[in-house]
């Protein structure tokens, strides 16, 4: 069967193969058995597919979402990415577009299936694997798991409010388009990197930005906290939310706050509230596949290999001593995993000494 390789950069129409088998764009024939299958189409999974192709490995990349990019593309397309070397003030969407362009350089080696959930992973007697998706079976000599934190759900405000009426209209948990907040008064809840990054980005376009956090200290990069304190963003700490309601006969949002360890209260009227309390995640599939899991993460060794030979993990899905959950750290893990994998599959090939 002829499969399309990757969606066209800069358009909304995918050129990858979906669950319905439709194809478009550059095509490549998927081999009867592929050298490596990458599970997960986020930034780290995309780079794993690209680097595997650089080592002359045939690669199949599978993702459950309708398009590549993972959580970055789905939730943070306009959020700046700061922790990747040489990628200056770029957005999530720009990062994903660059990674897609990399994949396009190896159309003869990389096959991509999107909108397909991986439902089974079985090791055969000859040491190869059968990977079953919602649309097909894939025979593969090795597997790289790059599913990030798995299924993710935003942590909600810890109060009752009219979610059905307000979520997605006045209360938001991620930003698809900054332009939607132009000229508005926006409250941002949270004290981590995401909350501060969004507050600083919104400062450029919103009429007024207020950051609300339940502690005086922030859990964010020191440089970002310094920029925040020098900005025009109003900082309210330490406050907790007690009430969030729609403004009667109006188009805004009424917020009531209580100061921690105090009787002091505060009321705000804003146009929108952006909540950044992080996400809960679920990697239950790892256990279902019989892989070693520690506190929800895949356990790997110094080569990013699990206790099951030729099954590797990279990115936020894995754990090992000193693990840092950043996109840049995941990118650094990919060459270690792929170079070791390539030597296992083809012992006569030497690991590259330099780029």
UniProtKB/TrEMBL annotation:
<dbReference type="Pfam" id="PF07992">
    <property type="entry name" value="Pyr_redox_2"/>
</dbReference>
<keyword id="KW-0521">NADP</keyword>
<feature type="binding site">
    <location>
        <position position="63"/>
    </location>
    <ligand>
        <name>FAD</name>
    </ligand>
</feature>
<comment type="subunit">
    <text>Homodimer.</text>
</comment>
<dbReference type="InterPro" id="IPR050097">
    <property type="entry name" value="Ferredoxin-NADP_redctase_2"/>
</dbReference>
<feature type="binding site">
    <location>
        <position position="118"/>
    </location>
    <ligand>
        <name>FAD</name>
    </ligand>
</feature>
<feature type="domain" description="FAD/NAD(P)-binding">
    <location>
        <begin position="35"/>
        <end position="323"/>
    </location>
</feature>
<dbReference type="InterPro" id="IPR036188">
    <property type="entry name" value="FAD/NAD-bd_sf"/>
</dbReference>
<protein>
    <recommendedName>
        <fullName>Ferredoxin--NADP reductase</fullName>
        <ecNumber>1.18.1.2</ecNumber>
    </recommendedName>
</protein>
<dbReference type="InterPro" id="IPR022890">
    <property type="entry name" value="Fd--NADP_Rdtase_type_2"/>
</dbReference>
<feature type="binding site">
    <location>
        <position position="76"/>
    </location>
    <ligand>
        <name>FAD</name>
    </ligand>
</feature>
<feature type="binding site">
    <location>
        <position position="152"/>
    </location>
    <ligand>
        <name>FAD</name>
    </ligand>
</feature>
<feature type="region of interest" description="Disordered">
    <location>
        <begin position="1"/>
        <end position="20"/>
    </location>
</feature>
<feature type="binding site">
    <location>
        <position position="71"/>
    </location>
    <ligand>
        <name>FAD</name>
    </ligand>
</feature>
<feature type="binding site">
    <location>
        <position position="316"/>
    </location>
    <ligand>
        <name>FAD</name>
    </ligand>
</feature>
<keyword id="KW-0274">FAD</keyword>
<keyword id="KW-0560">Oxidoreductase</keyword>
<keyword id="KW-0285">Flavoprotein</keyword>
<dbReference type="InterPro" id="IPR023753">
    <property type="entry name" value="FAD/NAD-binding_dom"/>
</dbReference>
<comment type="similarity">
    <text>Belongs to the ferredoxin--NADP reductase type 2 family.</text>
</comment>
